[in-house]
Automatic annotation (TrEMBL):
This is N-acetyltransferase domain-containing protein. Pfam families: Acetyltransf_7 (PF13508). Keywords: Transferase. The keyword Transmembrane does not apply. Residues 1-115 form the N-acetyltransferase domain. SUPFAM superfamilies: Acyl-CoA N-acyltransferases (Nat). PANTHER family: GNAT FAMILY N-ACETYLTRANSFERASE (PTHR13947), LD18367P (PTHR13947:SF37). InterPro entries: Acyl_CoA_acyltransferase, GNAT_dom, NAT_camello-type. It comes from Phyllobacterium sophorae. It comes from the Bacteria. GO terms for molecular function: N-acetyltransferase activity. Gene3D superfamilies: 3.40.630.30.
């Protein structure tokens, strides 16, 4: 189950930052932090899943929650990763994120276009 944990406005403006947590048997087993939109891009700032809860859909559910946060606020969700986080690279590519040119600091940057649900679509 994904639950809303926190939502706040930054001190520099109306950008909204949100955190969602994944619960398993009442315990938090993962979380995602999305930084508010600037220039139609939101940032997937953190995605963490407890090792014992990996490969069972928790990370995918958290990424879906991140995309839902962004709908109507941004057209792209961007995630930066360190070069040595190969498991993160594989996961992001598996769930449809595209590798962009490297950032100036040498990090890998992935992005995904946010598609709003069509009329009549239910989740």
């Amino acid at each position: 189950m994904i639950a809303d944990f926190a939502s706040w406005r930054s001190s520099v403006g109306a950008d909204k930052h949100q955190i969602r947590v994944a619960l398993r048997d009442g315990d938090i087993v993962g979380w995602v932090f999305v930084r508010g939109s600037r220039n139609q891009k939101a940032e997937l700032a953190h995605l963490c899943v407890e090792p014992s809860s990996r490969r069972i859909g928790v990370g995918s559910a958290l990424l879906e929650a991140a995309l839902s946060i962004c709908e109507g606020r941004a057209s792209t969700l961007v995630a930066g990763t360190e070069e040595y986080w190969t498991s993160a690279h594989q996961f992001l590519e598996k769930v449809g994120y595209q590798l962009s040119p490297k950032a100036a600091d040498g990090r890998r940057v992935y992005s995904k276009t946010i598609i709003a649900p069509s009329a009549g679509h239910t989740q």
